[in-house]
Design brief:
Radius of gyration of chain A: 24 Å
Strand content of chain A: 25-35%
Strand content of chain B: under 5%
Shape of chain B: globular
Largest sheet of chain B: none
Order of helices and strands of chain A: EEEHEHEHHHEHEHEEEEEHEH
Largest interface: A-B, 33 and 30 residues
Number of strands of chain A: 13
Distance between the termini of chain A: 30 Å
Shape of chain A: elongated
Helix content of chain A: 25-40%
Number of helices of chain B: 11
Distance between the termini of chain B: 23 Å
Oligomer: heterodimer
Structural class of chain B: mainly alpha
Number of strands of chain B: 0
Number of helices of chain A: 9
Order of helices and strands of chain B: HHHHHHHHHHH
Chain lengths: 306, 269
């Protein structure tokens, strides 16, 4: 049975349509990343699944319950890391975890959670004295404190430095390996690629694509691009050409269906002439390329996450 | 899972601990009323409570200051603290856990009532030790009843005000602008014997004056107080109004940004 089951989910705020009919299933143990521009409907979706908001239409089942009606037993089985939420600044890190652990039927030991998120040195420090990244780690700690079956992470690593981000990724991997189902939103495509079994791209309240991050939008079968700098005194006409070729300034971009053969031809050509191909690269479309194509539009400063 | 009532009791303990770590709230609930008590005693030292009764003047205004301390805690502090916590997202976080919402809010209310009653006790201890206040032990059950009904009334109003404030920054202004003028016309800072009748009538409509007067009356050795039904009635009525307003306007989601507000009506509590 699916952990999350959503059919025809709709939600409007006044005249603004936030969700225009979302269908989504998340299997036990799956890690699903929701991608999309600000205001696309990611947070609205996740907050409906968490039981904070009531859908206008559609069927929503999370762990067998309707989230808004789930009550204590439902909340005992989920963990929530909101995009932003406060915490009593006067308590210490350890006290916060102790206080919140009382609410759950089978919490993880606070000490263990403090070590897991790497706040050991701040154990006795007041929450008010934590840096932004440390506070986010405390958010994460409080999210996993109840040993949830399903963990919601709304932009979990925003504000992390690269080291803290890797650390958080390892932690999320670890949770996933022990069977926790995870639904996260992120603006970092690297994060989605690294963590998710499946990415779901939402734009303007509808799902525009979903799939394995490695194959989304035909990434794996798309034409490869070979890029290098044109050697001095060489005309582009002399270069073996297995696909289409473009030259801009001195940068040559060669697009091909058969990158192995094309590369072989190209490097043999260069070796025979004793030339080095500077800046040689073979590229496939990145997740970012696919994502940008899917949500093709101008950056929108007005849109607000709901 | 722990039963809700045990979580409620635990929450009161945690809120108590948090309270003592925020000096500003401790100042307004304990130090400020104590300052009033000391200053009023300096102003009226040597006066007696009524002509030739021989009863210290402090017997009259210590109960009024004590009531004010209680109301400061369970109205002003509760309204400000809850509105700020809401906008910081503390309430929403609690909502997302298995802690029942009534236990969370009950913990905050319970803590301000306990703290307020503690402040009441401090005022009377200071009054008895330094200013010859005499506790009318036979009337203590009625006094406690009045304090508890008043605390419930002002807590309900405090939660209502938290719900009515547009954001946490506005909460101190709104809470103080409603309570302080009322305190002036309700006989907290000085007796109302010289106030015009119409002002006195207006003050009696609001819950603070009935609370101050009914408690003070119990401390007047010259009076033979009847059971204060009318005063309790006024406080209960305001308490019910507070509950209704809180049920209508109190929310668990932050209101800090205007954008969030414009986009959608926040869920009702």
């Amino acid at each position: 049975m699916a952990v999350v089951e959503v059919r025809g989910l709709k939600k409007s705020y006044g005249d603004v349509v936030a969700l225009g009919g979302i269908n989504l299933e998340v299997a036990p143990g799956e890690v699903v990343a929701m991608l999309g521009p600000n205001g696309a409907g990611k947070t609205t979706t996740i907050e409906i699944l968490e039981g904070f908001r009531t859908p206008d239409a559609g069927a929503v089942t999370v762990l067998g319950s309707e989230p808004v009606a789930g009550g204590r037993s439902f909340r005992d089985r989920i963990g929530i890391v909101l995009q932003s939420s406060g915490i009593e600044g006067a308590l210490t890190v350890e006290e916060s975890l102790t206080m919140y652990s009382r609410y759950y039927s089978a919490p993880r030991p606070p000490d263990e959670v403090i070590e897991l998120v790497g706040l050991g040195e701040k154990r006795g420090g007041r929450v008010a004295t934590l840096s932004g990244g440390q506070r986010r780690r405390l958010d994460l700690a409080l999210g996993i404190l109840g040993a949830p079956e399903l963990l919601f992470l709304d932009e979990p690593t925003t504000g992390f430095d690269p080291v803290a981000r890797r650390h958080a990724w390892e932690l999320i991997d670890q949770l996933s390996k022990t069977g926790t189902t995870i639904l996260l939103t992120t603006h970092y495509l690297e994060e989605a690629q690294r963590l998710a079994d499946r990415v779901v791209v939402i734009d303007r309240g509808v799902i525009v694509a979903q799939g394995d991050p490695a194959t989304l939008g035909g990434r794996d079968t798309a034409r490869a691009v070979i890029v290098f700098r044109l050697p001095e005194g060489v005309s582009v006409d002399g270069i073996p050409n297995a696909g289409s070729i473009e030259v801009s300034d001195r940068t040559v971009t060669l697009t091909t269906d058969q990158p192995t053969a094309a590369l072989h031809e190209l490097t043999r050509w260069a070796l025979e002439r004793g030339r080095e191909l500077e800046g040689l690269e073979v590229k496939r479309p990145t997740l970012e390329d696919v994502y940008l194509r899917l949500v093709d539009r101008q950056p929108d400063g007005e849109s607000v996450e709901t | 899972m722990r039963p809700g009532w045990r979580l409620l009791v635990g929450q009161i303990g945690w809120e108590w601990r948090i309270f003592w770590r925020i000096p500003i709230s401790a100042f307004f609930t304990f130090v400020f009323p104590l300052m009033l008590l000391v200053l009023l005693n300096l102003l009226f030292s040597g006066s007696t409570f009524g002509e030739g009764t021989g009863v210290a003047f402090a017997q009259g205004f210590t109960p009024a200051i004590a009531v004010f301390a209680l109301v400061t805690s369970c109205y002003t502090s509760l309204a400000i603290g809850t509105a700020i916590s809401r906008d910081e997202g503390v309430l929403k976080r609690a909502w997302g856990t298995p802690l029942p919402r009534w236990a969370y809010l009950g913990g905050r209310i319970g803590a301000t009532v306990v703290i307020g009653l503690f402040s009441v006790a401090v005022m009377f201890v200071v009054g008895v030790v330094f200013y010859d206040v005499v506790i009318p032990w036979g009337r203590v059950p009625v006094i406690v009843l009045l304090l508890v009904v008043g605390a419930a009334c002002f807590s309900a109003l405090g939660v209502a005000v938290a719900g009515l404030t547009p954001n946490g920054q506005a909460a101190p202004a709104i809470a103080n602008a409603t309570l302080l003028p009322l305190a002036f016309i309700s006989g907290v800072f000085f007796p109302l014997s010289f106030a015009p009748a119409w002002l006195s009538t207006i003050a009696s409509i609001f819950p603070l004056r009935p609370m101050v007067e009914s408690v003070s009356e119990q401390f007047n050795p010259a009076a033979t107080p009847v059971f204060p039904w009318p005063e309790i009635g006024v406080m209960v009525a305001w308490g019910v109004l507070g509950v209704l307003l809180a049920a209508r306007f109190f929310t668990w989601e932050p209101r800090a940004g205007g954008a969030r507000r414009r986009r959608g009506a926040p869920e009702a509590a």
